[in-house]
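Before going further, learn to read the protein records used in this course. The integers have meaning only within a learned vocabulary of local backbone shapes. The record below shows the convention in full.
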Amino acid sequence: MKKRPTITDVAQAAGVSLMTVSRVVNDKPGVGEETRQRIRQLIEEMGYRPNEIARGLATRQTATVAIVVPDITNPFFAQIACGAEAVAFEKGYHLFLLNTAENTDREVAALDSLQQKEIDGVLLCSPRLPIDDLEATISQFAAVTLFNRELQNPLPNVAQININDVLGAQLAVQHFVASGRRRLALIAGPVTSTSGQRRIDGYRAGLRAAGLIFEPQAMEHCQPVTEGGRMATAQLLARRPKTDAILAFNDLVAVGAIQACEDSGRRVPDDIAVIGFDDIPLATIVRPHLTTLHIDLEEVGRLAMSKILEIIQQPDAPAHATHWIDPQLVIRDSA
């Protein structure tokens, strides 16, 4: 095998010191322009590539950031990851993607592994850990963007981004009521989901504003996937058959709710209106097209990664204020 050229090989070919080549590689001052261009040309001709491990030991940075998600198959998190990766690539960073499968043990294991690798930052999406455990864990990282959780105590190494789930659920209820619906129901997400709890709060606030009473039997928790939505909706309709509107935890759950309505002989939206949350691409593919709360998820990912890089570059800056994102109701055929 052909030997990989080293920084020593480049220095010998250029007739300069290792330090001079290092300054050129790392774009540092102290090298004349003519010498700098000659070294760059040799680097290109020889095919030299810096050793990232050695560079990390020298700079105490690895140029790697991780994104941890609860469900890699959910397009919601895939779109966020796309936005985050685009910014990471633009800035010369590599991105690790870890999936916790809605399991807190796997979440703990993922974060422990990332601490051992001493990566530069973490984008932690919708973590399920209890807040005390979460705060203790993320305080040990150099830079973190926390998406869809709220810290009790702000940390200087943590930026927070949250969706205004309360507003989104209220907008959905307002639309149902304005359309003449009165027997509303909620297919909520996992009990451990912070977004799910905020959407319950917004749903209940919307009912109060409309003069409607919250009925516990009109709410069912489920896993945030299509089959979870289908099963939960079937159970809800069996005990509350006169339901005429369903707000779903997310678009996948909403698709499952539509399937359950069709299974029971109910037409959407004629008999039951359905509204989802997130506006993933699937929302415009299913029939009927899904009315949902829109969030620009790729922009969320770009913002989250930008916040991490800001903290890496300015580690002594004061704690970041929480960035809130308001969803917008997109009216289509299902409600």
In short: The chain has three domains: 7-50, 64-163+297-325, 165-294. The first helix runs from residue 7 to 14. The longest strand covers residues 64-69. The mean pLDDT is 90.
